[in-house]
Amino acid sequence: EKETRIESVDFQVGRTGRITPVANLTPVQLDGTTVSRVTLHNKAFIEELDARVGDVVRLHKSGGIIPEILRVVKEKRTGEEAPIVFPNRCPECKAELVEDGKIHRCPNPLCPAKAFQQLRHWASRRAMDVQGLGDKLIEQLLEKGLVKDAADLYRLGKEDLAGLERMGEKSAENLLAQLEASKGRGLERALYGLGIPQVGEALARTLARRFGTIEKLMEAGEEELEAVPDVGPITAAEIRRALADKRMRDLIRRLQAAGVSFEARQAQAAEQPLAGLTFVLTGELSRPRAEVKEELEALGAKVAGSVSRKTSYVVAGPGAGSKLAKARQLGVPVLDEAGLAALLAERGAAG
Ligand SMILES: [Zn+2]
């Protein structure tokens, strides 16, 4: 635990428009790293903590990793502290924020702060998996006005990319090929990639299987949506609101015009529920590894011998060593056997 001071507070706008207050601190050494920023989560958290700009706070690392404010050291107050004023308008686009439980959100789908996060999400591995479209590149594309949203990505040509920093001919070609390939990822990934509030990977998959096309999902009434497992009234309303939005409809229409598929890859999914996934097995498993490998391959998965960025999951038993370390280093999800069983059940592949 260490003490330091809150110097100022920024309000960041996330992909879904969620506003997160972040405190800028007088930099302090804590468990081996310098901490200069810490999240204040939401308005309720600030109120509960009774934090003010200028306050001395006690910090620790939650789980040994994430810096967290434990409390305000009120006995060190000088009277100079200023209250933290939570905005009622979006710091970027000035739209009036809407409250959603403890969360404040910018409701403007065209908010520029959201654009960066949305493009990043669209291109992410679990959405459209456009490798080579990193943060720096997204920033440049936005700054030069080449791209405003995901649909614009598919209008990029070699000549647009040629003028960008660190973009050789080869990497431009690769990026265009990646974009081309991403058009056929299917409804579940495209739906996840749109970043509709409440619609994570698992729900996107369920919705894709249930409705098959984006048109059918758009037509679905509240009752029909609520009949889907894991969809309650709030989520149903959120999905309907997002898909009824004129700008969202326009985005989907332009993505479709560019050739992006909003149809479920259902036939394939039904026969081969693990199609497109690559597994690496390591450590001691309860069954012979060859047997597990065979089972996964029969369900459409690939089983590889080494871990790379393309690995979807590492299944690790006791005694796992370097492959497990590599997975952690690359951020590849690691499952134990129970986790694998749960994944198979979720994909409808159990038994
Ligand atoms: Zn905004």
From TrEMBL:
EC number per UniProt: 6.5.1.2
Pfam family membership, one: HHH_2
Keywords, alphabetical: DNA damage, DNA repair, DNA replication, Ligase, Magnesium, Metal-binding, NAD, Zinc
Tagged with keyword Ion transport: no
UniProt cross-references to Gene3D superfamilies, sorted A to Z: 5' to 3' exonuclease, C-terminal subdomain, 6.20.10.30, BRCT domain, Nucleic acid-binding proteins
Enzyme class: ligase
Keyword Magnesium: yes
Domain BRCT residues, every copy: 269-351
UniProt-listed GO biological process terms: DNA repair; DNA replication
PROSITE patterns reported for this sequence: BRCT, DNA_LIGASE_N2
GO MF annotation terms: DNA binding; DNA ligase (NAD+) activity; metal ion binding
Protein function: DNA ligase that catalyzes the formation of phosphodiester linkages between 5'-phosphoryl and 3'-hydroxyl groups in double-stranded DNA using NAD as a coenzyme and as the energy source for the reaction. It is essential for DNA replication and repair of damaged DNA.
NCBIfam families, alphabetized: PRK07956.1 (NF005932)
Name of protein: NAD-dependent DNA ligase LigA
Lineage, opening ranks: Bacteria, Thermotogati, Deinococcota, Deinococci, Thermales
